[in-house]
UniProtKB/TrEMBL annotation:
GO terms for molecular function: 1,4-dihydroxy-2-naphthoyl-CoA thioesterase activity. PANTHER family: 1,4-DIHYDROXY-2-NAPHTHOYL-COA THIOESTERASE 1, BLR7284 PROTEIN. It comes from Pseudomonas eucalypticola. Residues 52-127 form the Thioesterase domain. Keywords: Hydrolase. NCBIfam families: unchar_dom_1. This is PaaI family thioesterase.
Length: 159
């Protein structure tokens, strides 16, 4: 994958979120059209040890983060954009012992809210295991605390 400023910013975004680091999220692809993240399989995030399937909470983290990072694709400068609403519809169970990929894009940007949609899949994006719709509040580039987070993104550390 070609190293672009958007890719660098997305990687710094993930690096600033300890829970994303703990479960191993990584950026697979990103451009102006959207972002794809990967959640690797790990026994530490299995929901049911009898089936070996990744826990739904880890999938929720994957999709919330994927939709959140998709906001970077449409904003001219970084803004703090917390999740307002996230809906995940599970279409069928994930397969055990396999990574899960999440893809999201922004389909509408207003002065106050960014609307996203996406899906989670394993082997084939045409066979999603879940679909997601999310809304994110735009707090603006100058919001208190936002500068610290934006600085962390610029430097690659934690706020």
């Amino acid at each position: 994958m070609t190293e672009t400023p958007l890719l660098q910013q997305a990687r710094r975004f993930l690096a600033a979120l300890p829970h994303c680091q703990a479960i191993g999220l990584s950026v697979t692809a990103i451009d102006a059209r959207g972002v794809t993240l990967t959640l690797p399989y790990s026994a530490a995030i299995v929901g049911n040890p009898f089936t070996g399937v990744i826990h739904g909470g880890a999938v929720t983290t994957l999709m919330d983060t994927t939709c959140g990072i998709a906001t970077l694709c449409v904003l001219p400068v970084f803004e703090v954009c917390p999740t307002l609403d996230l809906r995940i519809d599970y279409i069928h169970p994930a397969q055990a012992h396999k990574a899960i990929h999440g893809h999201a894009q922004c389909y509408r940007v207003t002065r106050d809210v960014i609307f996203t949609r996406g899906f989670a899949y394993q082997d084939d994006p045409e066979q999603p295991i879940a679909q997601v719709m999310g809304t994110f509040m735009r707090l603006g580039a100058g919001i208190k605390g936002g500068a610290a987070f934006a600085g962390a993104l610029a430097q690659g550390g934690q706020p």
